[in-house]
Amino acid sequence: MDGSSLDAHIPVLAGVLTERCHLPTDGIFVDVTVGHGGHSRLFGSQLGSDGTLIGLDVDQHSVQRAQMHLAGLTCRVILIRENFSRLDEVLSKLGIDKVDGILADLGFCSAQVADPQKGMSFQVDAPLDMRLDDRLPITAADIVNQMNEKQLADLIFRYGQERASRKIARFIANRRVRQKILTTGQLAAVVCEALHQPAFGRRSKIHPATRTFQALRIAVNDELENVKRLLETAAARLKRGGFLAVISFHSLDDGIVKEDFRTRRQQGVYEILTKKPLTADEKEVESNPRSRSAKLRIAKRI
After folding, report:
1. What is the per-residue pLDDT across 220-245, written as a single tens digit (0 to 9) for each?
2. pTM for this structure?
3. Diameter of the chain by CA atoms?
4. Fewest 10 Å CB contacts: which of 69, 173, 214, 255?
């Protein structure tokens, strides 16, 4: 695997992050979404030989890539395949009480989207899976084919913010009676049919199935509840003066982070360092289109 492939996933908002967030050379930093190690390498370079970098990711392939990308750091590097919702248990097992910084990038990398085994994209017809962690018991196909119509409509509305959720759920329920919906292509076609929109050659830049796919991905991976657990752990595990930085890519995640920061500020736990979420400038968006929807919020433990 060459260096260019390792750097294929560009870390979002890297410049503003390293400008605003600093670590002591002997600090302990946790990247709870280590991915391919882009953000971790930047923060790890702030640490000396007495420092520790802990990286978590549910994707074993990402952990392996991060291992290669972070090999040159002088600090101690610990990479663990685990969901960030279990950060408290991870730190306890490592015998670590408090840390100096925590970063969570709540997006997912382009390699995960492109991987047909994960079944997250409607660009390629693939098994309808959507699990970021293949150890999880329930796939998107299980939900689409087994959940009753009303529950499915509620799920698509709540997690996908899709106004046509009832119509989409009805079309899915009718189609699965004749044939199980087992691939991303099948599901995308049903959604397009329900919305009377073509998959290609449409006016909107957003694919008709985007919100439905988002809803299923969030449900399969229990994303919102995991974020809430992470935020709870972060408040308890940060040292005074330590920072928590969270990058969100949709309003559901960002709303949870915003409310958590606000509540803990009122409780005297946090100082919020970003009055408004920080976003990418035009130059970054041009070089990395994924950054367009990224919102960064930073809080400091007091």
Report:
1. 999 999 999 999 999 999 999 999 99
2. 0.91
3. 62
4. 255
